[in-house]
Amino acid sequence: MSELKANRSEKPIYLDYQATTPTDPRVVKDMMPYFTESFGNPHSVDHAYGWEAEEVVDKAREQIADAIGADPREIVFTSGATESNNLAIKGTARFIRNNPKGAPRDQVVTAVTEHKCVLESVTRLEREGFDIVRLPVDGGGLIDLGQLEEIVSEKTALVSLMAVNNEIGVIQNLTRIGEICEEVGAKFHSDAAQAIGKIPLDVNRMQIDLMSISGHKIYGPKGIGALYVRRRPRVRLEPLMDGGGQERGFRSGTLATPLCVGLGAAAQYANEALFTEYDRLSSLSARFRAALESKIDGLRFNGDEDQRIPGNLNVTFEGVSGADLMKAAPKLALSMGSACTSADLDPSYVLKALGHSDDQALASLRIGFGRYTTKEEVDEAVEILASTVKKMRI
């Protein structure tokens, strides 16, 4: 940890943990042997090199499964949450439509505040003739569960709703959503990239059929993710790629053993520290908010006050351009929203869904704390933001 902080000392204070996290040095250490001396292909079943790789990949499945209450056989490795979301949404919907049991199911339900890869996936299905329902959210970013209950029916193939929003940090009621889906036999998928390691997850208790996970959101490596796919009752998918039939036939291709090891280790470390880190980040967030509110007025904290993860603060600075504020405060590494849409100068569609005007959305910043954020960094960030905003408002 000390080496990591030393390398960061000359850089801006990092406050963008929802975009990505640094790889935990413990994870890097766990991965290193599988780049060099233990380099076998986990699908080579005829010799010791392959057996060794297969063994550690299976261990990674167990670590990930333990973090979400699943069976290791239900973990499918992917390149990240974007691929997992595409596979879950397109694969499930297409299989159900192409293999009807009873009345046709061609409806897919999601929310307007989902990650872009989810919204683009359902748009693709819409072009294929699926009936897509995009639920609105309230001023806090939460869906209306009563509305969801009215919409889903025996025509619904899939409901895809994220566990934690990547821009505003609000937590949807996964347990109730799972109950609603189960009542009509619809499959329930959740993008949990921002949730794993931050809130308790149990796919069986929450009746989740498919769950997407990303390594680089939990202090693991980039380029690796996983999709939980329920075995009983069995969820079936149409694969997006053809190949050698690896990963239960859902995702062909040679697995990257070091990355799988890294994701497994990251999931274990995050889950072990879940409650202590929750309390620590809650304290840092409360400290930041109280200090910032005491120094400047015209602030609006976005997203539901109660149903949210700690460590995510989305703030509107009245009368100030968020882009200009970031430029004027180069000692802070912040963002205006999802890293996947950072090149887009349009106002955040998530904040607009909450009722923000274009100007309000463009005056907002996402501030993310994480495993290596200190009280000193939080206090310094407050001072920099407060002084910069005051100067910009003159």
UniProtKB/TrEMBL annotation:
GO molecular function, one term: metal ion binding
Required cofactor names: pyridoxal 5'-phosphate
GO biological process: one example: iron-sulfur cluster assembly
Domain Aminotransferase class V: 13-379
GO cellular component: cytosol
Enzyme Commission number: 2.8.1.7
Catalytic activity: (sulfur carrier)-H + L-cysteine = (sulfur carrier)-SH + L-alanine
SUPFAM superfamilies named among the record's database cross-references: PLP-dependent transferases
Class in the EC hierarchy, top level: transferase
The keyword Transcription is annotated on this UniProt entry: no
Keyword Metal-binding tagged: yes
Keywords: 2Fe-2S, Iron, Iron-sulfur, Metal-binding, Pyridoxal phosphate, Transferase
Family recorded in the similarity comment: Belongs to the class-V pyridoxal-phosphate-dependent aminotransferase family. NifS/IscS subfamily.
Function, as annotated: Catalyzes the removal of elemental sulfur atoms from cysteine to produce alanine. Seems to participate in the biosynthesis of the nitrogenase metalloclusters by providing the inorganic sulfur required for the Fe-S core formation.
Name of the molecule in the record: Cysteine desulfurase
Provenance organism: Kiloniella spongiae
Species classification: Bacteria, Pseudomonadati, Pseudomonadota, Alphaproteobacteria, Rhodospirillales
